[in-house]
Specification:
The protein has about 325 residues and is an alpha+beta fold. Helices cover about 20% and strands about 25% of the residues.
Length: about 325
């Protein structure tokens, strides 16, 4: 769980009827943020905070949501919640620092209902330091995978999580919202979820590298995004955290292929809470493994919804 890192809290708001929702990650005081954005169609808020040249000394929260660009409104609710609960008595200059990113899920449920400010507020209110729900919940409620070919073979994605503790006191963890255009692969190279062959409802899949070579006109333009929050309690400066983010992002193509496409908005937020010393040469490579496993977790934990089949229900 991302909440294996002391001080981090996670909360969801889930709308099963409209197949959308949002997820709030609340950060402890003094948490740094960096990031990596790939693909051709990202939708972000306060992405400048991820730059090593941005002078904000901390981030308060990361909000992930469905609803495409409309879902960025959920971050307004998080800002309001933070102002109420973390504002300093008698001081009026506290400005909540909230990064946000969204996935495109408008074709899965009811496209007219998207996460709004009250959902971001409620997700913060629900955020807790312990285990949180995985699968078709929060920002992953309407997530799907395997959209590079045709709509009828698409499978369900969702929220996944993973963590490692490589040394005493050191934690590396990730939360992923898996809404990829590409397929999701296991560690052994087998497809876990993707473009499903509709043969006796069996979980067998098209291999995109083979199928597109034989049928070059088969690919279609689609929209998808894998969002990741990768965090560590290691003590890093802003530049080091940027390198950590880049190394952690390497975990996405280990689990998703094809990836970083024109319709993808793949984005990774990296957080460092600064509690313990740990070498970047250790936590960076392990972060990539944690990210890849969090993505695999997202399709393993997903459930059937809105006519889309999930791996666990096949």
């Amino acid at each position: 769980m991302l909440t294996d890192i002391p001080g981090i809290r996670v909360g969801h708001v889930t709308h099963l009827d409209s197949a959308t929702g949002c997820t709030a990650v609340l950060c402890p005081s003094g948490t740094l943020v960096a990031g990596e954005t790939r693909g051709g169609w990202p939708a972000l808020r306060e992405e400048g905070m991820m730059s090593p040249f941005h002078t904000s000394p901390y981030v308060d929260a990361v909000v992930l949501a469905g609803g495409s660009i409309f879902g960025l409104a959920a971050a307004d609710g998080a800002v309001g919640w933070l102002e109420e609960h973390r504002g300093r008595d008698g001081i009026n200059d506290y400005v909540p620092q909230v990064c946000s990113a969204v996935i495109y899920d408008l074709r899965v449920g009811t496209s007219k209902k998207r996460p709004r400010a009250e959902d971001g507020y409620a997700a913060c209110q629900a955020a807790a330091p312990g285990p949180y729900a995985l699968g078709s919940v929060g920002a992953g409620t309407g997530a799907t995978v395997g959209k590079w070919y045709e709509r009828r073979g698409v499978m369900k994605g969702g929220v996944g999580s993973a963590s490692l503790k490589p040394a005493s006191g050191v934690v590396i963890a990730a939360l992923a919202v898996v809404n990829a255009i590409g397929d999701v692969y296991d560690r052994d190279g087998a497809i876990l979820a993707g473009v499903r062959r509709l043969v006796a409802d069996a979980p067998t899949f098209l291999d995109h590298s083979v199928h597109l070579l034989e049928h070059p006109d088969a690919a279609r333009m689609s929209r998808g995004t894998t969002l990741v929050v990768a965090a560590t309690n290691a003590r890093l400066n802003k530049g080091e955290l940027g390198i950590f983010a880049r190394m952690a992002q390497a975990g996405v193509p280990r689990a998703v292929n094809p990836v970083y496409m024109a319709g993808d908005g793949d984005t990774l937020f990296a957080l460092a809470t600064g509690e313990v010393d740990a070498p970047l040469a250790v936590i960076g490579p392990l972060a990539a493994e944690v990210v890849a496993d969090s993505i695999r977790s997202g399709v393993r934990e997903a459930s059937d919804l809105a006519g889309y089949r999930a791996l666990r229900d096949l």
